[in-house]
Amino acid sequence: MREFRCSSLKIRKEERVFVDIAFTIRRSLALVGESGSGKSLTLKALLGMLPKGFEAHLACESDFALERGRTVAYVPQNPFTALSPLTTIKDQWIVAEEKAPEMMEQVGLEKALIDRFPPELSGGQLQRVVIAMALSSEPKLLLLDEPTTALDAELRSVIVELLLDLQRELGFKMLFVTHDISTAAKLCSDITVIREGRVMESGKTEKVLGNPVSPYTSALIEANFANREFRS
User: Which of 144, 171, 139 is nearest to 160 (CA)?
Assistant: First the structure.
């Protein structure tokens, strides 16, 4: 599969432009920035789920069309709120339900857990379930909205390794939206840093984090490893 290139993504509401960026996903890209930088709007634009009043103009090139639930799948931030607590996991499996048991095993879960209710599972198990649901449609592009934020450090590492293993096995591309630079460094080959809907710098993750050009990127890195969220 060739790279997914977005030569222009503009998101506006009335006369104001909230996001005006370009990016390329070769294998896995981390989109990093502080809260309010435009990360989540970017994901919603790719999913065709922008809030009312917003409109997106995309110029993307790839060997697949953007189709939510088919070529593009989404993993939300919080596994505890992603699923209804009153419905079994099996009955919430909308896409490719017949693949549910297979996908449960593929993410390291027992098939029997599919008959449980979400509150009966741990946070790590629930995140695996959400990932399994997303991948059951065999997407070309997986969009991840800070999926490790609600997990502790040990579980974050487990989920990162799981995603890397699944990517090697299934061949999908990843766009990982986060303010957690340490996790982005482990998961993604490339990184794009944005601020107020504009690109500050972009490149190979190791190069950008090892020798940042933008003072903003340097501040993000410093704040991240001091275990606090950066706000300008």
Answer: 144
Task: Give the span between the Cα atoms of 175 and 173, in whole angstroms.
Answer: 7
Instruction: Tell me the sheet residues that pair with 173.
Output: 141
CATH number reported for the structural domain that contains residue 86 in this entry: 3.40.50.300
Q: What is the token pair recorded at 42?
A: 């970017």
Please give the full DSSP string across 65-133, using - where no structure is assigned: ---BTTTEEEE-S-HHHHS-TTS-SGGG--SSGGGHHHHHHHTT--GGGGGS-GGGS-HHHHHHHHHHH
Secondary structure of residue 23 in the 3-state scheme: strand
What is the domain extent for residue 19? 4-224
- Six token digits for residue 161: 């390794």
Q: What is the pLDDT of residues 132-147, one digit of tens each?
A: 999 998 999 999 998 8
